[in-house]
Amino acid sequence: MLGLYIHIPYCASKCYYCDFYSAAAPGGVPEAYIDALLRELARFSNCDTGPLRPDTVYFGGGTPSLLAPAQVRRILAAAAPAPGAEVTLEANPETVTPASLAGYRAAGVNRLSFGVQTAFDGSLARLGRRHTAAQARRALAWARQAGFENLCGDVMLALPGYSTDELEATLALLTDGGCTHISCYLLKIEPGTVFGARPPAGLPDDDAAADFYLAAVDCLAALGYRQYEISNFARPGFESRHNLLYWDCRDYLGLGPAAASCLNRRRFSCPRGTAAFLAGDAAYTDEGACTGQDYIMLRLRLTAGLSLARLQRDWGVVWGKDKLAFCRRLAAEGLAAFDGDTLALTPRGMLVQNAVLGQLLD
Ligand SMILES: C[S@@+](CC[C@H](N)C(=O)[O-])C[C@H]1O[C@@H](n2cnc3c(N)ncnc32)[C@H](O)[C@@H]1O
Ligand code: SF4
Q1: What structural domains and CATH numbers belong to the chain?
Q2: What number does the ligand 2 atom closest to the CA of 128 have?
Q3: Best exposed site among 8, 198, 234, 301 by fewest CB in 10 Å?
Q4: DSSP 8-state code for residue 3
Q5: Which ligand is nearest to the CA of 58?
Q6: CA of residue 7 to ligand 2 center, whole Å
């Protein structure tokens, strides 16, 4: 199994909370960037076996919906995804049209992930988003008309002045819009962003934010979305196959500035800096071997949890009686389920995942 991540480091403008690697570039994605991606794809293709033929492709950003459909087609022609591959493109609601969505579909995209964030226009403006809730609703409707059945909506929780009304209105927008997958993230104030320099007024405290997260988990379960990862919920069969590769320690190749890769248990990344990437000057940085600790961290994100038998078989890690006693204590406190082999955090346990990892990682 191989996942291919394509980073598009361009946005129309920068949202106030965002530290993903992208620069404001109102003019769309230059053709030279597609040339640079194809150059890197060729570098990783095997001269004997030809193109990569990934099982999943994920266009992430930045704003991949600034790509013209013809640019998506060029990239997919070079990557040659395997038959039946999941091909996802992240889209900002205000950037799509019925024609661009039809073009993405014809180019081979079969899953769209829209950054909806919230159904309240005042909150969208305070986040520096360039769209309204009505534009998000319209984009989802256009996507369905273009034939997309696999639709994801991204939501941010615990925004300034957040309320249960805002949460419920946002989830209603996504379910009415036909989303089969919903990602819910607690707003994180990142250094180096506008919010990092000047935190907005009215942020919920940690306890209130945790309550919004648990309320989202309950609402989504009632609406038929099964939680399968800390922040991800899907109707049965619509889990993100690409992201599951990350959380299951499978191989993935990330192309573009700031993209991370892990192939044959070796992690490496491309440095930030679009100019160097365009010029072909960016040398990949070795990030070391993928270890049993990575496996523990990644698997504990999943509701399916971590198998101690697999941890021993694949990574040679065996937990002693202190750690097993800690797992039983987590279960007794309702923070995890533990049957002696599989340790799976509950939603309450996921909220304290860092503290749990502090005890489980040496
Ligand atoms: C790669 S980002 C953005 C993709 C796309 N350009 C967009 O704006 O929708 C994917 C998602 O991460 C979430 N996100 C980004 N920064 C965040 C932050 N500081 N706190 C919480 N969620 C964040 C947002 O929900 C966003 O849609
Ligand atoms: S949230 Fe999306 S649109 Fe906003 S700056 Fe980040 S990547 Fe760009």
Answers
A1: 2-245 (3.20.20.70), 291-362 (1.10.10.920)
A2: 4
A3: 198
A4: E
A5: 1
A6: 12
pLDDT of residue 262: 96
Write down the pLDDT at residue 46: 72
Cβ 215 vs Cβ 167: under 8 Å: yes
Asked if 196 and 160 touch (Cβ cutoff 8 Å), the reply is no
Closest ligand 1 atom, CA of 20?
1
User: 9 CB under 6 A from ligand 2?
Assistant: no
**64 Cα to the center of ligand 1, angstroms:** 13
Residue 60, phi then psi, degrees to nearest 5: -120, 170
Closest-lying ligand to the alpha carbon of 62? 2
| Long-range Cβ contact pairs of 141-144 (< 8 A, separation 24 or more) | 141/177, 142/96, 142/97, 142/98, 142/101, 143/96, 143/101, 143/112, 143/114, 143/178, 144/177, 144/178
Q: Give the pLDDT confidence score for residue 47 in this predicted structure.
A: 65
Testing ligand 2's pocket by substitution, the residue of 6, 10, 11 carrying the most ligand atoms inside 8 A of its CB is 11
187 lines ligand 1 (CB under 6 A): yes
Give the per-residue pLDDT at 360. 96
pLDDT of residue 57: 98
In this structure, the residue with its CA closest to atom 8 of ligand 1 is: 115
Does the predicted TM-score (pTM) go above 0.90? yes
The best mutation among 21, 127, 154, 240 to test binding of ligand 1, ranked by most ligand atoms within 8 Å of the C-beta, falls on 154
Q: Cα-flanking dihedrals φ and ψ of residue 89, to 5°?
A: -130, 125
Q: Does the C-beta of 20 come closer than 6 Å to ligand 2?
A: yes
DSSP secondary structure string for all residues of 234-273: ESTT-S-HHHHHHHTT-EEEEESTT-EEEETTEEEEPPS-
Residue 43, ligand 1, Cβ within 6 A: no
Bridge pairing between strands 86-91 and 111-117? parallel
Instruction: Tell me if 118 CB under 6 Å of ligand 1.
Output: no
Torsions phi, psi for 186 (to 5 deg): -70, 130
For the chain of 362 residues, list the mean pLDDT of each consecutive stretch of 10.
Answer: 97 96 88 97 80 95 97 97 98 98 98 98 98 98 98 98 98 98 98 97 98 98 98 98 96 97 95 94 92 96 97 95 97 98 98 96 84
